[in-house]
Amino acid sequence: MSERVIAPKSRGFLFLDSHPVGCQQLVDEMWQAVPAPVTAGGEGPVALVIGSSAGYGLAATIAGLARAGIRGIGVCFEKAPARRTGTAGWYRTAATARLAQQHGRDMVFLNGDAFSDAIKEQVADLVAERFGGRLDFLIYSVAAPRRTDPDTGDVYASVLKPVGSPYTTKTLVFDEQGAPEVKEITTAPAEGDDIEQTVAVMGGTDWERWVTFLAGRSLLAEGFTTAALSYIGSPLTAAIYRQGTIGAAKSHLEATARTLDERLGKTLGGRAVTSVNAAAVTQSSTAIPGIALYVGLLRGVLGEAWWPRSVSWWSCGTS
Fold first, then answer.
1. DSSP label at 62?
2. What is the per-residue pLDDT across 202-226, written as a single tens digit (0 to 9) for each?
3. pTM of the entire structure?
4. CATH code of the domain occupying 10-310
């Protein structure tokens, strides 16, 4: 294989290439930031993390492996190296898999569309055949631009828009050389079925579908707990986040949690929750106008005390 020099290349807020060594270093640092393990040896609980390659899902995966000694499955949707480098999540997943193996954790990572029934079938088969047929935890942390309904074939697209009136803010972008620049941008309000489309992608529909599917295969353990990892946002971003199209999806996610919690409580003595977490710089979050600048300033105010919060969520397997 010929050598390749990887230099920062960006388009707006998004860098087009990722560096394998940098991704591995990030994962290593997150693992080291996790508090001491709470397990006393033996086999840990079986967990499924949907959206395990980035953001809160990656943090939950690493914290679960390092602190709770979980075993199980991580699901993500990343691109392998080709003409460009692989996506950052591709390399982060490889680094997480190496650490899991080094620490004796039986963790399998699947790369595919979490919205599809094909991945659900693959996960269910793995739980049945490799992990004793009982799942203790399901962590749902999915952010996506679109979703195909497995039943109808309809494709829904999510948007980040305010509701009612335009939203103007300052945001952080990068030029072709990777230099940061603060710009003022205005986002037009939602129109047509933007809200319904966003709810269909980013709401709780697929989360509930996962739980229902696995329950139908009799794979949920007594006391099964599921959590959807979420974010509320600052008043500075409320107009485009919590009060915008994505906010409608978050409300749907929370309503889904209440429905699932009642159902799981009656059938398994289990529960469903939403876990609200600290602000984090991820590919998904930086798509929100103003969030990159806000988070950059936030860390300057809170210092290093802010960092461990994003990786210590999993203390005893629940929020």
1. H
2. 999 999 999 999 999 999 999 999 9
3. 0.89
4. 3.40.50.720
